[in-house]
């Protein structure tokens, strides 16, 4: 499992409702972008995080090479932009 820390730099978008699946982009301190998918506790994340929130996520890569969020921590929900 890999840990990524950074700022959410896109809107949190719903890709699917059944099963629920969210997409967002995370940018780390080195300006590297990660496209992340979130299924587990997605509604809780949607309520806590906004674009500009600082988050730490633990991710796994699936067979398609996509980053899937397994755990997350939202440090601040204040918009930083």
List the keywords.
81 residues, mainly beta, 5-stranded mixed beta barrel, 1 helix, 6 strands
What is the overall shape? globular
Question: Which radius of gyration do the C-alpha atoms yield?
Answer: 12 Å
Mean pLDDT, to the nearest integer, reads 90
Largest sheet: 5 strands, mixed, barrel
Looking across the biggest beta sheet, what order are the strands in? 1-3-4-6-5
Q: For the record, give the distance between the C-alpha atoms at the N and C termini, rounded to a whole number.
A: 30 Å
- How many extended strands? 6
How large is the share of residues in beta strands? Answer: over 45%
Class per helix and strand makeup = mainly beta
Number of helices: 1
One letter per element, helices H and strands E, the order comes to: EEEEHEE
State the helicity in percent bands.
under 10%
Oligomer: single chain
Spans of at least 5 consecutive residues with low confidence: none
Outline the fold blueprint.
Layout: E1 2-8, E2 13-17, E3 20-27, E4 33-38, H1 42-48, E5 54-61, E6 67-76
Parallel strand pairs: 4-6
Antiparallel strand pairs: 1-3, 1-5, 2-3, 3-4, 5-6
Structure description:
The chain is mainly beta and 81 residues long. 9% of the residues lie in helices and 54% in strands. It contains one helix and six strands; from the N terminus they run ββββαββ. The chain has one helix at 42-48; strands spanning 2-8, 13-17, 20-27, 33-38, 54-61, 67-76. It has a five-stranded mixed beta barrel. A hairpin with a 5-residue loop joins strand 5 (54-61) and strand 6 (67-76). The termini are far apart. The model has no long low-confidence stretch (mean pLDDT 90).
């Amino acid at each position: 499992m890999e840990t990524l820390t950074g700022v959410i730099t896109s809107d949190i978008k719903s890709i699917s409702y059944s099963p629920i699946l969210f997409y967002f982009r995370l940018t780390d301190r080195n300006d590297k972008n990660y496209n992340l998918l979130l299924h587990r506790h997605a509604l809780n994340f949607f309520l806590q995080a906004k674009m500009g929130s600082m988050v730490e996520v633990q991710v796994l890569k699936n067979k398609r090479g996509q980053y899937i969020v397994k755990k997350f921590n939202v440090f601040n929900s204040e918009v930083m932009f």
